[in-house]
Input
Amino acid sequence: MATLLDGKSVAAALREELRAETAPLAEMLGRKPALATVQVGEDEASTVYASRIAKTLAGLGMECRTLQLPATATRDELQDLLRTIGDDPSTDGILPFLPLPDPHTFEDVVAALNPGKDVDGIHPENAGRLYLGQETFVPNTPAGGMEILRRYDLPLRGRRAVVVGRSNIVGKPMALLLLAEHATVTLCHSRTENLPAVCREADLLVAAVGRARMIRGDWVKPGAVIIDFGINPTETGIAGDVDFESVESVAAAITPVPGGTGPVTNLMLARNVLKAAKSRL
Ligand code: NDP
Output
């Protein structure tokens, strides 16, 4: 049976560490480190996500301002808001919820987003720095996956890593982070031929697909480590991209869903808010 890579216990340890860092930083700043989330319209998933983030940050002694524009907001209105908080010295981090409703575009957002406050690393400047192996704001979800691997002391150097999913916010940055740790990385996507065979070569298999239980036990090399980023609502609850039942008897270690990568993501966001706040001292 695979070892469970328990995101909840990693999150609990991180919470303690971040809380201990936040208090002295708040003292030096003369205010709490602060994040502004920006939502356009009423998307329910974003509203739930915003309240979870606010709760996480409050528990760490940080401030979270939940900003919301109506779905009818113009492109100029959204850009004005982003520029205002980008210039506001009491806001350290900015998290715009994506994707945005029409007529807003990703390009509009990044054109008005201060890269020094881009705590989910979506701005091309930060994504470019990650590509170049420079210090940057790493996107929170893959940062959380790397944190779990690090805390469980799982070796990456020279290992064969396969990442399934190439989104700019999860799969692609995860591949770059693994490469930076000297893994030999293959990045797969919807056009990859013979995906099960490619997955079977992996010492570390990372799933960031958005398809419930797609990766099955017979896709997995015995003894592989599995990081499952999938969060897929199903009739029986939230499921990962990995079929836990058939994979757990083959893999050496696996993140469960829920309770694996999910609990760590918001703490990576909080860590980036602290990093942004420190840069303002
Ligand atoms: P996207 O939809 O942006 O990307 C999905 C990727 O999977 C694409 O690259 C796509 O390929 C690839 N893909 C889709 N179908 C297949 C297939 N049949 N075979 C191989 N590859 C396929 O999703 P995200 O990256 O945003 O999210 C991925 C998962 O992670 C989702 O379940 C999401 O809910 C979850 N997530 C989890 C978070 C966490 O904190 N744990 C946070 C954010 C997301 P192509 O590029 O060719 O279309």
